[in-house]
Give the backbone structure.
Amino acid sequence: MDNILFNEATIATEYINQHFKEDIPTTAVILGSGLGNFTQIVRVLETIKYQDIPSFPQSHVVGHKGNLTIAEVADGKTVLIMEGRFHYYEGYTPQQVTFPITVFHLLGIKNLIVSNAAGGINPKFNVGELMIINDHINLVGAHPLRGKNNEHIGPRFLDQTEPYSYELIDLAKKIGNELGIPHQEGVYIGVSGPTYESKAEIKAFGLMGADAVGMSTVFEVIMANYYKINVLGISSITNMATGIAKTKHEHSSVVNIANMVSDKFSRWVKEIIIHLPNYT
Ligand code: HPA
């Protein structure tokens, strides 16, 4: 059990349960770089700082706040929000990166919406578009489930046929169309970073079937699958990937574009949450 830090996550969960007065929602959202303004279009009810939660890693990336928040999206419908996440390139182990997912499981989360900033590989994509993730490639070179497995929690050899829930993908498409939010759909390839990719890497990733590239998400989704949490993934295409882009990459520009996209992302995600099936 040690490999997924289950005991530490149990203690963190107890802390969270004690410190939130509200009931814990059944849906969680992880906000990626620049997508933090989601909290401005919902009613924030309560917040806990990551630094106060036992064993919870700390968020160091520019544009990541480090708050665990409960907010109301509509009458009686609440969501648990992670404002900022942990990346493998920060030096965290895959188990630390996915620590919050184990906590989500223990808190009773059933649906998870993950978001990220990504570089567009598919030449049909444009900067500023949103992409529904319909599959992923884990090219990080590490895996959060490596190590001893506890069959009582999940299977040793986890199936990956549907890492992103078809039902949630259909719902996201329907709501996107209703709101007039144009969106793409495609495969996200997760790499370790922290460098941006070389031109040769992006060419190879395109041949492998990837539509967008980023440095997060895949570990979290694998762990959510392990706990049978339904996942929806949305990428904000903040730049075209190396070799497709005409200019060199800057993190500040990635965050600026993500901020510009943030408004339509937030409206979309809010409406998706309101229409989630079996929402309790
Ligand atoms: N590559 C990797 N991660 C990213 C990119 C990119 O081009 N853009 C935003 N996150």
In short: The pocket of hypoxanthine is lined by residues 117-119, 196-197, 213-215, 238-239, 241, 249, 254 (CB under 6 Å). The chain has one domain: 6-274. The radius of gyration is 18 Å.
